[in-house]
Structure formats: structure tokens, C-alpha cells
Amino acid sequence: MTRRRLVIGISGASGAVYGIRLLEALAKRPDIETHLVVSLAAGLIITRETDRTVAEIEGLADVAYRPDDLAAPIASGSFPTDGMIIVPCSIKTLSAVANSYAANLIRRAADVTLKERRPLVLVVRETPLHLGQLRLMVNAAEVGATILPPVPAFYGRPETLEDLVDETLGRVLSQVGVDNNLYTRWEG
């Protein structure tokens, strides 16, 4: 069986639970190999928002890299992947992606994903948004990224926080071509 490779970046925005839950869901999938980068700021957020450690979260991935390791395989287009998800995506990371500023491994891997015409999904976690942030989203979309803020749908009648998180992550996985049953699809 050929395993699909997905790069997961967790950046320093509130909403670390999205990245953690995505890794938990993908860890159950023997057909998917995950390559993870947790930014330094994300490490701080994780300790404030959860009872998990960065090491525990890195243990959910098949491969984890240091955020400053610009020599990692995922920093090169010659390393084949099926796409990248940055979840959550901070405005700082959005800005770097929109402006091709590859100063750390998350940003470099995102830039490589775009230049290789692979799917890149940015789960931007900020609200409200000012005009500059909206323009960054447009710029990122113009170079090929998909902007997918964690905006819940309620037709699936979510009952728990996990239901709301899974609904967003189901949509995210669909954007990179991964079939899943994490969310309720609209049937009219």
C-alpha cells in the first residue's frame, strides 16, 4: 500500500485543539503518513490551551521536525507530498505565506507546497479581521492557498466541542483529497 504524505504545521494562533485533533484522526489512518512542524509560538499556546506537551503532540505524527530545520526533507520540492495543512494558522504565518517569506520550516514547507502546485490549506484562526488581514488572505488565495477558517456549520447538529472541531477538520481533509467521515455533508 502506498501511503499518502501530508505535511501538518501548527502555528502560534489560538486553536491548538484543531491541530491536535487532526493528528489524532490521521494517526488512525494507516494510508496516511504525517510530517509535523510545531512552531515555537504554538508550543506556548499548546501549554496554555491544553494539558498536552509538544512532545506528546509530536508523538502523534509519523515524523516531527524542529521549526528551524530548513534542511528537513519537507523544505524541498523534490520530497513528494500530497499537500499541507496549517492548523491553526496565525496571521503572522498567513502573512509569511502570502509574501513568500520562508523564514522557518512551516513557512518554507508552505512555500514549497505552493511552488509545486500542491494543495495548501490555511485554517486561519483570528477574528475580527481588519482590511490588511483580509488582503493577506486574498494574496495567499491568489498564489494557490485555500483559506478555510474554522467556521462551524450547524446542519449536522453538533452536540460537543469535538463535533464542532471535527466538522471543520472534515472539510479541511476534503480539501486535500482525503475521504473522511468527520463531518456531516449537506444533503439538501
Q: Care to describe what's here?
A:
With 188 residues, this protein is α/β, with parallel strands linked by helices. The chain has one domain: Flavin prenyltransferase-like (Rossmann fold, 3-Layer(aba) Sandwich), CATH 3.40.50. The chain has 7 helices and 6 strands, in the order βαβααββααβαβα. The chain is globular and about 45 Å long.
Q: Helices, strands, pairings?
A:
Blueprint: E1 4-10, H1 16-27, E2 32-38, H2 40-49, H3 54-58, E3 63-65, E4 84-89, H4 91-98, H5 105-115, E5 120-124, H6 131-142, E6 146-147, H7 161-175
Parallel strand pairs: 1-2, 1-4, 2-3, 4-5, 5-6
Rg value: 15 Å
Largest sheet: 6 strands, parallel
Structural class of the secondary elements? alpha/beta
Strand content: 15-25%
Quote the CATH topology: Rossmann fold
Which sequence of SSEs, written as H and E, runs from N to C? EHEHHEEHHEHEH
Distance between the termini: 36 Å
CATH architecture: 3-Layer(aba) Sandwich
> Regions with pLDDT < 50 over 5+ consecutive residues?
none
Using brief descriptors, characterize the structure shown.
single chain; about 190 residues; alpha/beta; Rossmann fold; 6-stranded parallel beta sheet
Describe the structure in brief.
With 188 residues, this protein is of the alpha/beta class. It contains seven helices and six strands; from the N terminus they run βαβααββααβαβα.
